[in-house]
Amino acid sequence: MSAGDFYFAINATFRFIHDTWGKEALISYWTSMAREYHAGVAARFQEGGLDEVQRYWADYFAHEPGGDVQVSQSQGAVEIDVRECPAIRWLKDGCREIVPYYCAHCHYVSTAIADQAGMRFRLEGGGGVCHQTFYHGEG
Amino acid sequence: MIGVQDFIGYYDWTFEYLRRSYGEQAVRDYWVRAISQDSQIHARELIGGKGFDGMYEYWAHTLEMEEAGYTFDRGEDYFRIDMFDCPSKGHLIRRGLAAYHDYCEHCMGWVKPLMDDAGFVINHEHNHAGQCWWEMRRAADLVEAPPPVGGSHDVRLLPQWPQEKHDLFLNSERVEDDDGV
């Protein structure tokens, strides 16, 4: 079981870095985390390709508390259909003030992971409902 | 997405990132402002409003959620936790993660300011191996020494309790070793 209250700390961490050092510092934090802490994930994606991307995210969202996320692969891309984001749901249920740039971390972290793996990443939507795509090439 | 299932790993990584980017004081500020005063406002509300009852309510919820190994003890004048399997430090040990030089310090980093504001003092010791004890008392109820070892649940009775490095806090202040560390 995951401790959903950790979403409170993630939200607070983003606010602390943003309010103390600014937006660029927060982006640097996200991209550094992706390049360092998530280097192993990028290596898995590079080695295993889109099949591994699909496996990773399907397993990842299955172990987050709540949410409604479908992960599929078709036409050279892995599609992550976030119908209800577990983080946004938990924060809303906890009556927390969600930082307005919360969803941007998915863009910056996953773009940096994809970049290391020789892939591309696209994020559409936000606020608890979004569509994320990992793919090869210019697409 | 940054989720909660591997939160402890990048929590530890974040401490080290802040230290190397902005200095050690930034890590301390992070524990106070981001964790104690923002993330853990629910703990502040419970403990500030209900005292020892709030401590029980908060830690019973959070330690169950984190699947910790622990016992509680309560008296008129104290609330005590014996942690024999810290889920947080245990996660790092099992995965060989140690980005920041003193992960365990974060607990006092956020709990002490909360207890200061709520009118309690902390007596606490951890062994950097996933075991620790905590005893919260009212602010005026100061002690001169750690409580004597007692009761079958006292974490200090465990064979793994002795470790090379321990950190001890009495009345919410660090007790320095004879050599000043």
Describe this structure in words.
The complex is a heterodimer of chains A (139) and B (181). Chain A has 139 residues and is an alpha+beta fold. Chain A has a single domain, classed as Muramoyl-pentapeptide Carboxypeptidase, domain 2, CATH 3.30.1380. Chain A has helices spanning 6-21, 23-36, 39-62, 86-93, 104-116; strands spanning 68-74, 77-84, 120-126, 129-135. Chain A has a 4-stranded antiparallel beta sheet with strand order 1-2-4-3, with helices on one face. In chain A, a hairpin with a 2-residue loop joins strand 3 (120-126) and strand 4 (129-135). Chain B has 181 residues and is of the alpha+beta class. Chain B has a single domain (7-175), classed as Muramoyl-pentapeptide Carboxypeptidase, domain 2, CATH 3.30.1380. In chain B, 44% of the residues lie in helices and 19% in strands. Chain B is built from 6 helices and 6 strands. Chain B has a 6-stranded antiparallel beta sheet with strand order 1-2-4-3-5-6. In chain B, strand 5 and strand 6 (173-175) form a beta hairpin. In chain B, helix 3 (41-50) runs antiparallel to helix 4 (52-65). The chains are: A alpha+beta (139), B alpha+beta (181). At the A-B interface, helix 1, helix 2 and helix 5 of A face helix 1 and helix 2 of B.
